[in-house]
Design a protein that fits this description.
alpha/beta; 9 helices
C-alpha cells in the first residue's frame, strides 16, 4: 500500500490524569504529559505506518517550533513528510487535552495552518506513484477544493477515502456534498454522520450519504463498535473489549486499520474488524501513536477474541 494522507495535521499535548482544572494560580500534579502527532491526516498516517503501509503525508503547518516537533515525530514512524508545506507567520495546529481518569477528553484547540492548505500547495505528480488517497477533514479544506483533490486522485487511478473533522453539530451536507461522488470510502463517526446529514438515525443518514454518491460507509460508534453500509446492506459490529485510558486518535486508528485491510484485499467485514481492533489498542494509552503493535499483532488479537458476532439491520429503503 502506497498511501497519501492529506489534510489535517495537529500536535497533541496530552495531560493525564486531570480530574479538574486548577483554579486561579493553583498547581495540580499529574502523572504524564506527552506529545503525539494527530489529526485526520497525520494521526491516520502514523497508524498506517505501524500497520506496514508506505505513507506520505501532505498538509500545512507553520514554520514554528511546534511544526518542527510535529515533523520530527512523524519521521520517527518512517513517514515521508516531503509533501507537507510550511506557512510563515501561521502557527502549526495544536490541541491541549486534559484527559480525565475515565478517558473523557475535553480539548483546547488551535486551528493554525490547516485551513490554509490549498490546491496550489499540492504536488499533483505525487498521485502518479500512490495507490490510495485518504483526505482528512475535507470540510476544513472547503468543499470545492476537496472535490477537486478527490476527482484528480480518481483520475490518477487511486482509491479514495475521507474522514471528517468537525463535530456533527457544526456540520452540513453542503460542506461535503461536492466531494462525496469521488469517494470510495467515507469513515465518519456517528455524531458526524447524523449531524452532517441532519438525519435522526443512522439508517437514514446512510441513505442520504449513499444517494449523494458515497460508495461504502464505515461509521464508528465509540463503545458501540461500528456500522458498515453499502448501497443495499447495513451491518453492525460490536467493539472489542479494551481498557480505555484515552480515546484520542481512536477514529484515526479505525480508519487506518480499515484502509490497510482493504489494501490487502480483505473483505469489508474483515476491514471493520481490523479497524476496531486497532482502535482498541490505541485506546489503552495516551495519544494516537500509543502502542507497540504491528499488523501481525492486531491480527493475532482478532483471532483470539470471541467477540466477533455481527447483527444485520434491515434497510428496506436503501
Amino acid at each position: 500500500m502506497n498511501v497519501i494522507t492529506m489534510g489535517v495535521h495537529v500536535l497533541d499535548i496530552l495531560v493525564h490524569p486531570v480530574s479538574e482544572l486548577p483554579r486561579g494560580q493553583e498547581t495540580a500534579l499529574v502523572e504524564t504529559i506527552r506529545m503525539s502527532p494527530a489529526g485526520t491526516a497525520a494521526g491516520t498516517a502514523v497508524v498506517l505506518s505501524k500497520l506496514g503501509a508506505a505513507v506520505r503525508t501532505a498538509g500545512a503547518i507553520g514554520t514554528d517550533p511546534t511544526g518542527d516537533l510535529l515533523l520530527n515525530l512523524l519521521h520517527r514512524y518512517g513517514i515521508d513528510t516531503s509533501l507537507v508545506v510550511r506557512k510563515p507567520e501561521i502557527p502549526t495546529s495544536a490541541t491541549v487535552l486534559p484527559i480525565h481518569p475515565n478517558g473523557d477528553r475535553p480539548t483546547l484547540h488551535l486551528l493554525g495552518a490547516n485551513p490554509f492548505y490549498a490546491p496550489a500547495d499540492i504536488d499533483w505528480s505525487a498521485f502518479t506513484t500512490a495507490t490510495h488517497l485518504h483526505l482528512g477533514g475535507p470540510e476544513l479544506l472547503g468543499a470545492p477544493n476537496a472535490a477537486r483533490i478527490l476527482q484528480q486522485a480518481k483520475a490518477s487511478g487511486l482509491t479514495t477515502s475521507a474522514d471528517l473533522l468537525a463535530p456533527g453539530s457544526l456540520g452540513s451536507l453542503d460542506a461535503i456534498a461536492p466531494a462525496l461522488p469521488h469517494l470510495d470510502y467515507l469513515l465518519p463517526n456517528e455524531d458526524q454522520a447524523l449531524g452532517f446529514t441532519g438525519a435522526t438515525d443512522l439508517v437514514a443518514a446512510c441513505h442520504i450519504l449513499h444517494s449523494a454518491g458515497v460508495g461504502v460507509l464505515a461509521i464508528t460508534r465509540g463503545p458501540h463498535g461500528a456500522l458498515l453500509s453499502s448501497p443495499n446492506h447495513i451491518r453492525e459490529f460490536p467493539a472489542y473489549p479494551t481498557k480505555v485510558v484515552d480515546t484520542t486518535g481512536c477514529g484515526d486508528a479505525f480508519s487506518a486499520g480499515f484502509l490497510r485491510a482493504v489494501s490487502l484485499g480483505r473483505d469489508l467485514p474483515a476491514a471493520v474488524h481490523l479497524g476496531l481492533a486497532t482502535a482498541a489498542f490505541v485506546a489503552q494509552g495516551l495519544g494516537t501513536d500509543h502502542g507497540d503493535y504491528t499488523l501481525a499483532t492486531i491480527d493475532e488479537f482478532i483471532a483470539t477474541q470471541s467477540n466477533s458476532t455481527t447483527e444485520d439491520v434491515s434497510t428496506p429503503h436503501l
